[in-house]
Amino acid sequence: MCKYKPISEKYPHFLHGGDYNPDQWLNYPKILDEDIRLMKLANWNVVSLGIFAWAALEPEEGKYQFECLDRIMDKLYDNGIYVILATPSAAPPAWLVDKYPEVARVDSNRVRHLFGGRQNHCFTSPIYREKVRSINRKLAERYKDHPALIAWHVSNEYGNDCHCDLCQEAFRNWLKKKYDNDIKRLNHEWWSHFWSHTFTDWSQIQTPSPHGETTIHGLNLDYKRFVTDQTIDFFKNEIAPLKELTPNIPITTNFMGTFPGLNYWKFAKHLDVISWDSYPTWHGNEEDWVVAYKTAFVHDINRSLKGGQPFMLMESTPSVTNWQPVSKLKRPGMHVLSSIQAVAHGADTVQYFQWRKSRGGFEKFHGAVVDHCGHENTRVFKDVKEVGEILKRLDPIIGTSVKPEVAIIYDWENSWAIEDAKGPRQEKKDYLLTCQSNYRPFWSKGITVDVIDMESDFNRYKLLIAPMLYMLKDGVAERIKQFVKNGGTFVTTYLSGIVNENDLCYLGGFPGPLKEILGIWSEEIDALHDKDENCVAFDEDNELGISGEYKAKELCEIIHLEGAKALAKYKEDFYVGFPAVTVNSYGEGKAYYIAFRNNDDFVDDFYGKIIELLNIKRSIDIDLPIGVTAQLRTDGNRQFIFLLNFTDEEKALDLKDIEYIDIVDNGILSGKVVLPPYGFKIIEKRN
Length: 687
Ligand code: GLA
Ligand code: ZN
Known about the structure:
Number of helices: 17
Largest sheet: 11 strands, mixed
Strand content: 15-25%
Bound molecules: alpha-D-galactopyranose, zinc ion
Radius of gyration: 26 Å
Shape: globular
Distance between the termini: 20 Å
């Protein structure tokens, strides 16, 4: 393993900064100088500029006004602050929507929207695409050689679809291409003879609508795929002038974690660097360390999206959001800790929304580095400054990554299919939660994990975990077989191998094409009411050496052995004695099946044994108390270990007699080390 390049060679250090919206403050001429004074004080070295500045940059059609932006870019650069320049397509100016109503999006109720909000545009409209291309070209022409420009921030949080006539047409064309112009094939794949929904002409097909079609799952799935493809197509139109005029400036757009509306795996291929906006609800109904591992899971997706390439934490809040149900303040330590958490999982930047609180409007109470008081003597400002100070000491970590031995599949299209399915439960389908629950034992033991989709390469891992792999696309089972044959260990669960990529059930017994490798047949699935539970007990002398009994809830599959061995069985109900955990040897490897939904104690014990058996490496070979994790970044030679305490209590660790260097304060650590509440250490073994 080696190092990735820094995001920009112009500034090969950690980027620290965030959204800067000076276009809101044009009536306050002195504020730019004050902003720059404060940014330097806050250890900022980058801003994301002009994200919603279209109205300021093009106040009238074709009349561009860049002088102000020139001045801002120059001043920032003169003061050592770089610019991630935005394209403003997320929010068009009023004149544009007024003059060309077709650019406004039409929602699934077929209502054409009025001017307002953001991401409220059609993604097909040739006029909108042309207007976006024009302003983007102007920006690229004007700033292509500006020394401050280090990256492009394209649009903002893409995430809306459109159902206008142009989009209907585009969808039909997409379908014609997918089904080779064969409407009979479409009818078969969509199973549309059901309820007499057979289509006899392409023109009859409409995008899903609450007062129209929502019951053809194949259509719903294809529509979601179309939305991803059409968004990417819109994005490609946006970036054409940027790529042409600034081929060496990296391009990103800010993702939103596990936002269900877009398949980020498809999108990622078109970005030079991944960035995402992270807003965990700290100090809420869940314990902080639970929020922490769920957030870690999403950071790991973002690192995995480009095979381990460091990503950007494009947005996080310096204090609170204004949209969570309760906007609780971050407790002392949490701001720094959660920023370092992103770095621990592969971020090469820590950025915020936003620099200065808006004086009015929708986000006037959203946390910002500079509050309405306007000065630096605030707790939040000090926290931000401290993050900047720490990042300055992390130069050797830039471009480092990690090569985990474990991967968990979290697949967007699979999640669409699970959410859409009627049954076996309408509530608590919990695909994401189940993936996160399978991730938790690794996080708790300080084992790094990639979070991938079903089309990723499996061969680089020792252990592949695919919870609820309901949809199995063509070829995936074959790739899993190959992986296990060659010595890999595969774990999957109930509700796997049920449908193909168009949501048609596999015939011939579940888990469909995974039957052979798992050596089982799943005959029925019992959905339990919330008040119900079953119990699963491990057999004596089972090869994992687990002896406990575990609660089964919500979903229990009734399976038969067809070559596999049972490790544990149900203890109750009419399927008492049926296998609940199985293992099948296949080639050089093994495939495990977990037939029931379980709790933390089960995943802890089960994966605890698998980790032991496979001798999976931890980031550091020490015991970690509950709520503390260890993560790793390496260039293949130097190993940077992040110890993170997500509890409000001191936690003692025993580093034994090995000596480590504390990367932040250069101290030497060994033996007993105490992490303060919400405290952390970044350490490297001393030579
Ligand atoms: C998103 C947006 C920002 C801002 C924040 C508020 O992430 O990209 O413009 O609205 O939410 O949390
Ligand atoms: Zn449209």
